[in-house]
């Protein structure tokens, strides 16, 4: 029977809440700084010009900066609100694409660190860090292979004719295993 693989969709978009919250706050702070800077620059550059307008059927001449300040502030507040909501959505999505794989890595690396070299990091094809996951899996596989080989060599040493080996032969076999250990790992 052929099993069909079901696509996994995350239901929880707040995986690493602190990371995602800081990411969104920083992004929105940059937007706010940009809008404030833009408003200040428009106001400063328009201070030395005059604008004529009608106010209650009277012609009024005043600084352009003063004349456009109220409209500029309202426009920027509306723009800030729309862009902030959009930015929250986009940064939540982008940070989720980063935080999800990071969470997976943390969980699987902890298992590998505890000694389970059979663990493999599985990410969706659309997730970030797919190449890093592949490299980690190759590392774990290589470690597993080297340690399995050493385990087999130890088994051979223990199973071999116990009565026919001298202490010197056991010592030589152990030194060979130690040499293999140092060849395969930087200790």
Describe what you observe in this structure:
The protein is mainly alpha-helical and 187 residues long. The protein has a domain at 17-116. It is 68% helix and 6% strand. The protein has a two-stranded antiparallel ribbon. A hairpin with a 2-residue loop joins strand 1 (50-55) and strand 2. The radius of gyration is 33 Å and the shape is rod-shaped. The chain starts with 16 loop residues before the first helix and ends with a helix.
Looking at how many chains there are and whether they match, the oligomeric state comes to single chain
In N-to-C order, the SSE pattern is HEEHHH
Major pleated sheet: 2 strands, antiparallel
**Average pLDDT number:** 80
State the shape. Answer: rod-shaped
Instruction: State which percent range the strand residues make up.
Output: 5-15%
Report the helical percentage: 55-70%
Number of strands: 2
Number of H/I helices: 4
| Rg, alpha carbons | 33 Å
Please give the alpha-carbon distance between the first and last residues: 48 Å
Poorly predicted sequence stretches spanning 5 or more consecutive residues: 1-6
Backbone structural class: mainly alpha
Largest sheet, order of strands side by side? 1-2
What's this model, at a glance?
By secondary structure, the chain is mainly α. It has helices spanning 17-45, 64-113, 130-159, 167-184; strands spanning 50-55, 58-63. The chain has a domain at 17-116.
Characteristics:
187 residues; mainly alpha; two-stranded antiparallel sheet; 2 strands; 68% helix; rod-shaped
Q: How is the secondary structure organized here?
A:
Layout: H1 17-45, E1 50-55, E2 58-63, H2 64-113, H3 130-159, H4 167-184
Antiparallel strand pairs: 1-2
């Amino acid at each position: 029977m052929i099993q069909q693989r079901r696509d996994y969709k995350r239901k929880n978009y707040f995986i690493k809440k602190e990371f995602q919250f800081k990411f969104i706050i920083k992004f929105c702070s940059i937007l706010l700084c940009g809008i404030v800077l833009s408003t200040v620059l428009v106001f400063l550059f328009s201070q030395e010009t005059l604008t004529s307008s009608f106010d209650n059927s009277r012609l009024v001449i005043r600084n352009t900066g003063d004349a456009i300040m109220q409209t500029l502030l309202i426009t920027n507040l509306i723009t800030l609100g729309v862009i902030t909501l959009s930015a929250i959505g986009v940064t939540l999505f982008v940070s989720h694409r980063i935080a999800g794989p990071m969470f997976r890595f943390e969980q699987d690396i902890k298992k590998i660190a505890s000694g389970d070299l059979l663990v493999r990091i599985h990410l969706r094809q659309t997730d970030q860090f797919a190449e890093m996951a592949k490299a980690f899996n190759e590392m774990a596989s290589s470690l597993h292979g080297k340690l399995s080989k050493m385990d087999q060599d130890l088994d051979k040493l223990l199973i071999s004719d116990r009565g026919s080996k001298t202490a010197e032969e056991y010592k030589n076999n152990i030194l060979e295993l130690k040499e293999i250990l140092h060849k395969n790992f930087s200790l």
